[in-house]
Design goal:
This protein is an alpha+beta fold. The chain has four helices and seven strands; from the N terminus they run E-H-E-H-H-E-E-E-E-E-H. It has one domain.
Amino acid sequence: MTEPIHTARHHERRRQPYSWVVRHATASALDELEPFLERLRALPSLVERNRGTFYRRGAAFLHFHEDATGMYADIRLHDAFERFRIQTVAEQDTLLALIVPLL
């Protein structure tokens, strides 16, 4: 199973070292992820409230970040978000395989 890059609760993120500070994905970054976003939109249990921000059962579930090292997805696996790299199609496939059983 793929290991998350980082686990943090939202309120703890502000205290993380600068190396973990990444910005939410911009529109152009989401454009690059569009094929992956389409695959996520096809999952009936996910609701995309804003482009690239998905909810499950009314709670935030998945969103995207970018930095100089690539694209990342934060996914709520339990009570905290965990970060996964999704720069390549193989990394996206791995994340999708992790998401489907949670739905």
